[in-house]
Description:
This protein is mainly alpha-helical. It has a single domain (48-268, 277-295, 359-570), classed as MetI-like fold (Orthogonal Bundle). It is 76% helix and 3% strand. It has helices at residues 20-40, 59-90, 92-107, 110-124, 127-156, 160-168, 173-202, 204-208, 222-231, 235-264, 281-288, 290-314, 330-355, 359-396, 398-413, 416-427, 434-459, 463-471, 476-510, 525-535, 538-570, and strands at residues 47-48, 209-212, 215-218, 512-515, 518-521. A hairpin with a 2-residue loop joins strand 4 and strand 5. The chain is globular and about 65 Å long.
Amino acid sequence: MSQPSRLFRIAQPLFRPLTWGDGVILLGLALLLYLGIRLGLGAPAAIKGPEIELAPRVLPYYAGLSLGRMVAAYLLSILFSMVFGYLAARNRTAEKFLIPLLDVLQSVPILSFLPVALLSLSAILPIPWAVELSSIILIFTSQAWNIAFAWYQSLTTIPRNLRQASTIFNFNGWLRFKTLELPFAAISLIWNSMASWGGGWFFLMAAEIFSVGDRNFRLPGLGAYLQEAANQGSYECIAWGLGALVLIIVTLDQLVWRPLLAWSERFTMSLVESPTPPTSWFYNALRSSRLLHFLTTSVLQPPWRRLDEWLAHSFLVTGPADETRRRRPWVWYFLLTGACLGVLYGTFLTIKMLGALPLQKWGDIVMGTLITLLRVIAALLIALGWTIPAGVAIGSNPRLSTWLQPVVQIAASLPATALFPVLLLLVLGLPGGLNLAAILLMLLGTQWYLLFNIIAGASAIPRELLYTSDLLQLSRWERWRSLILPAIFPYAITGAIAAGGGAWNASVVAEYTQFGGKTFHTIGVGALIAEATGTGDFPLLLAATLALILTVVTINRFFWQRLYRLAEARYRME
């Protein structure tokens, strides 16, 4: 084995340029934003949300409300990711539309999408329902995309010998999902779920208290508590809120994430057992519980066994969806024609609204987009510089992971928007001022997507390959070049795509913030979006949002997507 790089299959990198599907997706999203804005004009002219108490006694109640919203958004994210990622990975025709759509969706500024959702829902639903549903949707948009990318990446990088084995054994769709696809993706899904929860906490403050012109939307919750404390400049209340948040994070880590990590050890692609596997006292307690064993075997297993048998016999054995061509009934062509006409009409109305924007504003948008792009690049470079060595160290050393994983989980879940006022006061006097603060806030909100994906990639390296590199007495550089970097490459690209989208989203709060009755802002497209949202300038909001989306999609397609295809083609474990 003179060439260690043979551990990975070598193939020519693939590259897919922009297609007409990308244009359809962009036009459809522009139409959706336009319709939401037009519908929002029918919302009540003035809305006043409930007052947020800052007494510590309300924190348990507020924390319970916020946790319920997070759970609802996470369950919705898992359902969306399973369906979306499976369709994109199994059907090449659908992939041409779904991957560009995912690129667009993960690049839509969350705080730009929220006023559209809030105003449109408040025009057709009672205000409390509209605000509650909008907050869950906002948290969903901060959780779903990286889980969907992780699921899609796992499905497209399953070793071919395992796929061939499932075909030889004549597995149908359910058996293949249950015994191959979900176990192979388990580690990545768990780590990305932790990252998604961190992203959800990051935008919780924006999800529970939001203003659009004279419309003040508020929901009682932990995020609203922290936002109100920051607006009043109360460091004591910020400390109380962060303490409650840390308590929730530690509890979730001990009762949910650590047991899941210990359970997922069985799904590592390794023939050698780890000398120090991840452990969990709660997982061990559940395994040794006789009462839980009785409930599982007597209550849960019988209906699950019947459901499993029904699914196993209901799904037909099919090959890849793109190997057969099915005749489409005429109704699909009729619906497609109607959709195209609707998109064209919506495009005309969107262009009409954008035409009302002064030329000077377009210049501000172009300049702001370029400056924000530089900040995003700086944040990603800083994140890559420390997450690669740290992620590999944590993922390849279970003993180190036992100590650092809770710390990382807490740090990732602390909303940087709550810490930003303190950070702002510390760096305003330094060279760079608000520009430096904006980069740091982007970094705080995006570095965790990279770290968790790299940890997942390092954890998934088969241990026999690590032992083989030791037997070959590879130097540290050769080991990194021939094994570690190729193994984590697909995970790093997945994390970088999610982190890039998160950095663009974070620009909205990083470049325009309010604290203690003062407004701090700098030049950037995020500041333009935040300003347009606060003043109700919908043409500027639409134009800046579309400019940001187009920029991110172009970068994803001409840079990240090329690396993604390279990871799929060249660095697949075989």
